Please model this.
Amino acid sequence: MKKFLIVLLCVLLAVILAAGGYVAYVFIDYYRLEDNISLEVETLRGTPGPDKELAPGAACRVVSYNVGFGAYSADYSFFMDGGKESRARSPEAVRENLSGAVAAAVALEPDFLLMQEIDVDGTRSHHIDELALIREKLDGAFTSAAFAQNYDSPYLFWPPAEPHGANKAGIAVFSRFPISSALRRSLPIEGGFMKFLDLDRCYSVQRVPVGDGARELVLYDLHLSAYTSDGAIANDQLEMLFADMLAEYERGNWCVAGGDFNKDLVGDGGASFGVTGPEYTWAQPIPDEIIPEGLDVIAPYDAAAPIPSCRNADRPYGEDDFCVTVDGFIVSANVEVLKAAVEDTGFAWSDHNPVYLDFTLR
Model:
């Protein structure tokens, strides 16, 4: 009996030491990138085309697409949404989903393409450099690009059967017009333990000269917090972005932001798309009072034929799933919106559908 107790105590001590060591590793390995980091602007092989000039009055299209790290086929479910899976099913699945997503985006013929949740090295995506794969698939379609790292997470040993692992991911902008400069802005996030779940967050700022170059189109790509316990953080993030855009608008520049807001842009997405429930509370509306005069939030929503931009991945996709519109745009008052819509892919390659905005610069 005494020997058994000694063995048991040794096992318990080993477990405690291992748990303590892991917690220490997570805290030591965690870091946030500083604010205002200049981004490399890459020159690509595409050309704007002889009929295209970025000038006031010209019609343009921007597409935004969260590609879900290449894991979310329509039958995929994710553990943090209440589903079962934590990684893409295979390297082949990653390549197939990203190839399909890129093809869907290119078919929309965007002048600007904003993408989110691109892994450059991730356990969950089988260490495929997804940015390189996307560049390859977009070859010849754009003239310039910029990538901003969103987060670089410590190894997550959960779920036990197949840990989510360590993942470095970011957001990317591709443009048919030359980008003169790009900047990464760090967003406010929750403190304490929640920072390890929601990780780092940012938006990127791309400057595109217009006409004679005296003024610019300032293009923002964003992926706001999702897994927070404090809803005020998302509002803080939006208020920072609004202030940035408003300052550019007041300088005479045109501003267009797009991406994954992780906010209900319609106002009551569950009712709009037919499924509601107390368990689906992660996407809240943007409070009207925090949207400043001079900026408009544009939800790509058609009440006559509603198409959601995102599904809750707690199970394989079906018609009775909770869906919502969290992908959309913000424009300054000197940008005229011609159309905003969701392209229905049936969530074939991501838990998001691509959204697009047609606009002109007043």
Observations:
- The chain has a mean pLDDT of 89.
- The first strand starts at residue 37 and ends at 39.
- The first helix runs from residue 2 to 29.
